[in-house]
Automatic annotation (TrEMBL):
<dbReference type="InterPro" id="IPR012093">
    <property type="entry name" value="Pirin"/>
</dbReference>
<feature type="domain" description="Pirin C-terminal">
    <location>
        <begin position="203"/>
        <end position="320"/>
    </location>
</feature>
<dbReference type="Pfam" id="PF05726">
    <property type="entry name" value="Pirin_C"/>
</dbReference>
<keyword id="KW-0479">Metal-binding</keyword>
<dbReference type="InterPro" id="IPR014710">
    <property type="entry name" value="RmlC-like_jellyroll"/>
</dbReference>
<feature type="binding site">
    <location>
        <position position="127"/>
    </location>
    <ligand>
        <name>Fe cation</name>
    </ligand>
</feature>
<dbReference type="GO" id="GO:0046872">
    <property type="term" value="F:metal ion binding"/>
</dbReference>
<feature type="binding site">
    <location>
        <position position="81"/>
    </location>
    <ligand>
        <name>Fe cation</name>
    </ligand>
</feature>
<feature type="domain" description="Pirin N-terminal">
    <location>
        <begin position="43"/>
        <end position="147"/>
    </location>
</feature>
<dbReference type="InterPro" id="IPR011051">
    <property type="entry name" value="RmlC_Cupin_sf"/>
</dbReference>
<protein>
    <recommendedName>
        <fullName>Pirin</fullName>
    </recommendedName>
</protein>
<dbReference type="InterPro" id="IPR003829">
    <property type="entry name" value="Pirin_N_dom"/>
</dbReference>
<dbReference type="Pfam" id="PF02678">
    <property type="entry name" value="Pirin"/>
</dbReference>
<feature type="binding site">
    <location>
        <position position="125"/>
    </location>
    <ligand>
        <name>Fe cation</name>
    </ligand>
</feature>
<keyword id="KW-0408">Iron</keyword>
<feature type="binding site">
    <location>
        <position position="83"/>
    </location>
    <ligand>
        <name>Fe cation</name>
    </ligand>
</feature>
<dbReference type="InterPro" id="IPR008778">
    <property type="entry name" value="Pirin_C_dom"/>
</dbReference>
């Protein structure tokens, strides 16, 4: 897994050692992501598909793309398609992905890079492996996350952020047993490079066998942990989790039955791991719930059915952008 790594995590800035006074959030549920296909047929695991929307807000969906080792001619992407009302975040762990959009954004990401696209009022884009990778084949693995925008920002101008692996903030657990790659948001006073319109935190943690990681967490954020590979436990109650599973933590917002506000998220890696994945690899994410109605259909995420109908009308009328001439 060639996302950004270091030989000795203890050379990095360290997260604070957990204190006994900090409450660790418990796990409300652990679910297994169903498998499916997206775009032109690349395999995904739909990490958030079985979770109630009130536990996900402000997130809409997250797909684990792959992990798949393509033969020559097999790599696939997504053709040109529209979006409105939210942001897409693509984090590549293995392989290469090209992005192009109707607002002039575009670039290539691989091995720890991230593309962050604000669709806002409307955009056309495509993501696909470069031609040389289609011909050669190879390993492909990453995630795509959809982050909702509040109604007041759904029609903002589109934007594109290219977050290179060298800009990701690297942190160590207090004892060096875990490496944290902070992509966006804030943890323990450290801030990731991603600029977020909706307040969120997004990170990728690697825990060595037998290690423990406790992340200070904002009281007004929800919290989710998705296992890319490996096995271990999550929460104060040490719920077992493994590859392809999502842990939903308690402790956010005014919703009934969710417990008091939490201040720390804890993950453990089992003492033995799979030979192909020596560490517990986890995507941890959370954000401040928007608390607005969600009308979601296909590539559009709005507040009302009327706004959804308007998005389709605008797309069909060509008001969401034009494919650049060099890509037409």
């Amino acid at each position: 897994m060639p996302a950004v790594t270091v030989e000795n995590p203890l050379t990095l800035p360290r997260l604070p050692q957990p204190l006994g006074a900090v409450r660790e959030r418990e796990v409300l549920a652990v679910t297994t992501a169903p498998s499916g296909f997206e775009g032109e047929g690349f395999p995904v695991r739909k990490a958030l598909a079985t979770i109630k929307p009130q536990y996900l807000d402000p997130f809409i969906m997250m797909d684990q793309m792959g992990e798949v080792d393509y033969a020559p001619g097999e790599p696939k992407g997504t053709p040109w398609h529209p979006h409105r009302g939210f942001e897409t975040v693509t984090y590549m762990i293995d392989g290469v992905m090209d992005h192009a959009d109707s607002h002039g954004g575009g670039g290539t990401i691989s091995d720890g890079d991230t593309q962050w696209m604000t669709a806002g009022g409307g955009i056309l884009h495509k993501e696909a492996p470069p031609e040389w990778l289609v011909q050669k084949g190879g390993l492909f693995h990453g995630i795509q996350l959809w982050v909702n925008l509040p109604g007041s920002q759904k029609m903002v101008a589109p934007n594109y952020q290219d977050i290179g692996r060298s800009n990701v903030v690297l942190l160590s657990s207090h004892d060096g047993g875990a490496l944290v790659r902070l992509i966006a948001g804030e943890v323990a006073g450290f801030t990731g490079p991603g600029s977020t319109r909706t307040p969120i935190t997004l990170l990728h943690a690697s825990l060595s066998p037998g290690s423990r990681l406790t992340l200070p967490w904002r009281k007004d954020f929800n919290a989710l942990a998705y296992v890319l590979s490996g096995r271990g436990g999550a929460g104060a109650d040490r719920q077992p989790i493994e590859s392809g599973q999502l842990a939903v933590f308690d402790g956010f917002g005014p919703l009934p039955g969710l417990g008091t506000e939490g201040e720390g998220l804890t993950l453990w890696a089992s003492g033995s791991q799979e030979s192909r994945s020596p560490n517990l690899e986890v995507i941890v994410l959370g954000g401040r719930p928007i608390g607005e109605p969600v009308a979601h259909y296909g590539p559009f995420v709005m507040n009302t059915q009327e706004e959804l109908a308007k998005a389709f009308e605008d797309y069909q009328a060509g008001r969401l952008g034009t494919i650049p001439a060099e890509h037409a």
